[in-house]
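Action item from last week, closing it out:
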Amino acid sequence: MRLWWQDPFRMFQTNLREIDAGLDVESVLDYLEDFGADTWLLSVGGILSNYPTDLEFQTRNPYLAERPSGDLVGDAVKAAARRGIRVMGRMDFSKIDHRRAEAHPDWCFVGPSGARQVYNGLTSVCPSGDYYQVMLFEVLDEVLDRYPLDGFFCNWMSFNEVDYSRVYHGVCHCVACQERYDGVLPDDRDSPGYADWLRFSKEVLADLTGRIREHLAARRPEAPLVLGDQADIVFHEANNAVGRRLWHHRTSESVSAAKTFRPTVPVLTNSVGFVDMPYRMASEDPHHFAQYLVQAIGRGANPSTYIMGTPGTTPYACLDVASRLTRFHRDHAEVYRDLVPAAQTLLVRPVHSRAEFEGLYLSLLQRHVPFDVLPEERLGEADLSRYRTVVLPNVGPVDLGAYAGRVVATGTTTALSVRTLARYETEAETRSLHLEGGVPVFGTFNVIEAPSDAEVALRALSRAPYGPPEKCYGHVLLDHPGMVKQGNVVLFPWTIGQAYREVGLSVHRDLFVDQVGGAVETDLPEQVEIVVGRSAAGFVVHLLNRSGDTDQRFAPPVRIGPAWSRVPAGVREVRALVAQEDLPVSDGWVQVPEIGLFDVLVCV
């Protein structure tokens, strides 16, 4: 049986304050319908219950007294059902009030010093304790007994090392954690054993996620769980943060990582309408917010918009563009039905080496090589056979199983049997290091001895003085290769991606991409990102205009085109959805109309 959430849907989240319990349900539903949403994520229970709970350890919202029924959830579910709008329950079990914390200290987070974590009068709880492990299920049962909700989302289900003010509290040392953990608990990120504790915490959360899924499936199979990448619907929050370096491709990367791992599992991108948690009254810039949604739908995620309070609480400036893009997704639901990745190049996202990954990401994007992203930790679980090329950015030891396609590896990746003679890792060690042709090396360079039957290129030059000018000579060609080819494997034994990310020389980008291949033939400029997928409608190409990507913001994109682009062999018809034009196919080429924010080509 096909469940509702396996088809495209569009969500709107009202993250309610306790004073919003008297909201006008019909007015909110009017707004959602006009917005293009068909699913409402409503605050239901946990910290506050927006229904008349009878559970002793839950708190009824006192503002429910403003409603004649005394039941916001009940009113919302009934009214939404009449309109065919689904209601999902937002639950937050991360905190309890002082009275419950005093009665149940074993539920609470306990820092290494023995202190609890209290924020705005609420005490953080620990996922190892019984509030999560036992009481959570009693709350779900009470809600399911009363309301036919269409799904659940659990907010902030974590070990609360960091609070809302970004204060670091360390590793939890509560009784349950001490009993569950095999060994001595570390205190913080710098403690010995922290990596082991991270694995432990992920296992606890994965087990809890699985139990919640099973519980909901037994009680109400049509009500999915929205959570991590093992849930029924994978959740990604697209947000901004004051003080965080902007990675312009964060949403696209995150959705791709989820869809590549499990292509048929829905992803929900919940896009935050405000700038940051401390600035919840400040609207996100419309051009920034638009990128959340176009990157999400381009990679096959379901769009969602998230605001504080009700639609009338704060006039967020980004909501106009959000509604236009949400309605676009609604109006082209067939195009997004069963949309799965279709790139032939896979870019592995390493656990470490973030700069290397980002540099290779930008290189592929700018050279119009469509690619999918897969987390390194999922390599053993994903089907690699559908990819012509796998890119491994400085991942160290790796096992690709039976994969027989092309491999392009960088840095310390053990893709070839080479002997490492030395490693230059610091800036002082690599300074002034060049490869033949005047290619500079930045980051890490591994001096290797290649296999005797391998082809070597980009040999290193010995370093010589770089100042004063009178002494700048003496670079001698050495036998240390900067690129090795053997069979289907190409290895750059240095961080060529980091070099491009930090310095921006096209020579780094082009050396790498020329070995990957697979670029789309087009005269579109590098500011257009090409994302390919397949859906019920055919071969789908999203063209995302990235000309607005600028320092720490998104500016209005400059219109690009028209331009020519090749389409896959056998394509007879192409429709540009945003331009609303049928594009004639001539010898495998189409002329793409002018692109504003984005366009979508459906090829059949």
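Closing note: The mean pLDDT is 97.
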